[in-house]
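Before surveying the methods themselves, it helps to consider a single example record, giving the amino acid sequence and backbone structure tokens:
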Amino acid sequence: MYWMKKTNIISFRIPLIVCLLTCGLLYCFSYLIEHTFEKISIQQNVTELNSVITSIERELTYYSPDENRDEFFQNLLLILTGHHHLFVYIIDDSGKIVYRTRGPNLSIALSQEHFDRLITENSTAIWNIDKSSYRIGASRVLLDEGRQYTTIVAVARDLQLEFIKRLRNGLGLLIVIACVLALIGSLISIYFTQKPINRLIKKIEGINMKSLNYRISTKSVPVKYVSLVKAFNNMLHRMEDVFDRQRNFTADIAHEMRTPITNLTTQTQIVLNNARSTDEYREILYSNLEEYEKMSQMISDMLFLAQADNHQLVPNLIDIDLHSMISLMCEYFEPLADEKNITFEIEGSCSHIEGDKMMLGRAISNILSNAIRYTPANQTIKISLSQVNQKRIQIIIANPGKKIESRHLPHLFDRFYRVDESRHRSGKDSSGTGIGLAIVKSIIDTHRGHIHVESDDLSTRFIIKLPTVI
């Protein structure tokens, strides 16, 4: 349910973001259009005003009220022809109106505070009168005869403002429609995109511990989700493997614990059936003690592996001379090896490393014990030391014997995994319980090293690589 709610929130959030981005982009685009049109309109008005003022100034230089008044008016009409909504107001130095067009009373502009600045700076200004807007320009012509004429020209802006207003409203409506369409389109797109994902979610929700062997078919999903399905199927495979190993581990530990408990129960029942001498009681107690020691060792090993799984193993790092340490271990195992006339051969050398001497000793001890168990009589176990590089060393422990099939090699370090289920389980070392090599791998991993096994008709080789410094 939480996953579905989260998916729904994300499904709504994405269209909302798309909608907002669309609004933002269209708003910027519409602002650019409106601003560009307004700028062009201003430039057009200014150009028109300057053109008319220049033409009027040229005519005024030839104007004489007594001689060519009618000709002047005709020329002004020709100048104004083609200019719509343009108004002209001309006065002489005495304030007498020389010419004016019908329309707004442009004489009011003469009393404006900034009127003289329009003439000196050759600029234009916005003038609002009677709910109408005009752009005005002005000029003053001084003739040689001492006559002076002031010209005011105005062009109406109402149509331009109305067009800009309609353009703004149209663009606003376009933005709203586009945003609604973007929102609807995004929702529809996400719906069809989420549909196969929702089917996957339903299939995933139906998987539990009892159906970890189920795999989602890649044929029932779109191509773009095939890699996701494959990754999920691989995860299920790993989970199934972990649960199988955990289940087998639980069964194996129960079996291993049942054997000594059954022995203890049987021996105790036998003792209680009849009276025994002191020596018989002592012998039975010694036998029970051996079973207790096996159980104690197994529990200690399991606690060690649990600490390794939870990354709680903290090695006590000291400088270790591996050649010297392995030589002492070979001496320790000599009595056991002598029973089968097995010898040890150590060759090569390597630099000292940093590590936990007790842990590494336990790991190598388990491997040597395992090698002695499966080495035929009158053979030699070879131990090779070498320097891989300045930061890494290698240990190879090779014992002759029967070849281990390749299908078993990847599982040798699994707990309670046995190549031969019928092999004898005895002895106090943890390798007899099937977890000795699992402990070896945990110790090597704790030291950030690597271990693997190779086997052929000549020998089985445990190859360990360790860093010189952790």
